[in-house]
Amino acid sequence: MSERQQDRQLDCLIDLLTENATVVMSGTKIASQLRVPHSTFWELIERLREWGADVRGLPGSGYQLLKVPDVLTPKMIRQSLHSGEFGCRIHHCYQVDSTMNEAGRLAAKAPHGTLVFAEEQTAGRGRLGRTWFSPRGTGLYFTVILRPRLAPGAAPVLTLLTGVAVAETIREIAETAVDVRWPNDVMISGKKCAGILVEMTAQPERVEHVQIGVGVNVNQSAVPAELAGEATSLRRETGRAFSRVEMLVSILVRMERYYDILQEQGAAPIVARFGEISSYARGKRVRVADGPSVLVGETVGLSPEGMLLVRREDGQTESILSGQVRPE
Ligand code: BTN
To answer: d(Cα 165, Cα 259) in Å, to the nearest integer?
Structure first.
C-alpha cells in the first residue's frame, strides 16, 4: 500500500474517532468501517499515537479518542471551506518531501484548484534554492494547482496575489501589522513569517498549470538558530497559538477571490492592492541581489505587471523581475 493510501486511512480513522469521541468503539467495528484488516487497524492506531493522539484502549470493549492530534484532515478543511474551486480536491500528506514535488507528481491530472497540504515536509523548498523549515503540525505547508488563462509572462502576478491573501489573513486573524516584501515575503516586525513559491509549466503561448506553494510559520515556538534574525512565527510575535484550519481556509478563500478578480479585470487591481499594503513598493531604499549582480536604489512603484521599479543612484529606473530585495 502506498504512503498516500495509508495517509487516507489515517484521515478516516481520525474523522471516525473524533465524531465518536464520547463513546468507546470496538476495534472490530472501526476496522470494518475503515474496511481494513485488524493488523492494519493496529498499525493505524500506533501511527495515530505517533502524531500526538491520546487513544485509550479498553481491554474487551474498544477505543476512545481522548486527545485529538493537531492534524487537518480533508474533512475538517471541507467543513469550513465554502469556496468555489480552490480546495475542490484535497491531498493530505502527513509527511512528504515537498508539497511542490507532490503537486508536480499530480499536476497533469489534477483539476484546477487542487490543494496539496502537508503536516510536515522533509525537503521544503524556498525561492532561490533555499530550504523551508517545515516541522510537523505547527505551520501551514501547502500548494494549490491552478490552470489559469494567462500568458507565461503574466504569471508573476500570482505571487503578489498570494502574498496579499496571506498578509490580509494574518492581519485579520493574528490582529497584527503585516508587511509584504516584494515579491513573496510576508513580514511581521521586519521578520519573515510566511513565504510564497510559484512554479509553472507552460507552452510558449499559454500556461499549462501553476503550482503556488505557501508556507506560514504559525505555531512554531522556535525557529532554527541560523534564521533567528530573519524569521519568526505568528506565535512568537503574538504569544498566542492559532487554528491552522481557520488560517488555511481564510487564505484559500482570499486567494480565490483575488484570482477571480485577476481573470476578470487583469493584474491592475492586484498590483494596486499589493502597492497599498507593501512598504517596499514605494519610497524604500533597497539593495536587490540577483545572482552576482547587485542594484541599489529607491523603490518608485510597481509596473502594471507587478515588477518592482527601482530608481538607481544615477537616476535610471530599473524594472525588477526577480531577485532578493533587502532594505539598504
Ligand atoms: C520562500 O519564501 O522562499 C518561499 C517559501 C515557500 C514554502 C512553501 S511550504 C509549501 C510549499 N512546499 C515547498 O516545498 N515550498 C512551499
So the answer is: 10
Are 20 and 55 members of one domain?
yes
Name beta bridge partners: 327.
286
Q: 14, 36, 67 — which closes off a domain?
A: 67
User: Ligand 1 centroid to 140 CA: how many Å?
Assistant: 10
Q: Do 83 and 62 share a structural domain?
A: no
Structural domain containing residue 286: 282-327
Q: Name 27's Cβ contacts closer than 8 Å, sequence gap at least 6.
A: 38, 41, 62, 63
Read off the pTM.
0.95
With a 6 Å cutoff on the Cβ, whether 115 touches ligand 1 is no
Task: Write the CATH number for 310.
Answer: 2.30.30.100
How far is the centre of ligand 1, averaged over its atoms, from the C-alpha of 270 (Å)?
Answer: 21
* Residues contacting 307, CB < 8 A, separation 6+: 156, 319, 320, 321
- CATH assignment at residue 112: 3.30.930.10
H or E element in which residue 99 lies: helix 99-106
Mean predicted confidence (pLDDT) in 85-110: 97
What's the 188 CA to ligand 1 centre distance in angstroms?
18
**Which among 257, 277, 297 is the end of a domain?**
277
Our answer on whether the CB atom of 143 is closer than 6 Å to any ligand 1 atom is: yes
Q: Are residues 309 and 197 in the same domain?
A: no
- What whole-number distance in Å separates Cα of residue 270 and Cα of residue 6? 40
Residues 135-159: what's their mean pLDDT? 93
Interval 16-20 mean pLDDT: 92
Q: What is the pLDDT of residue 218?
A: 97
Length of the chain, in residues: 328
Is the C-beta atom of 141 inside 6 A of ligand 1?
A: yes
Percent of the chain topping pLDDT 90 = 84
The pLDDT value recorded for residue 22 is 86
- Average pLDDT of the residues in 33-54: 93
Count the domains in the chain. Answer: 3
Q: Each residue of 169-193: pLDDT tens digit? A: 999 999 999 999 999 999 999 999 9
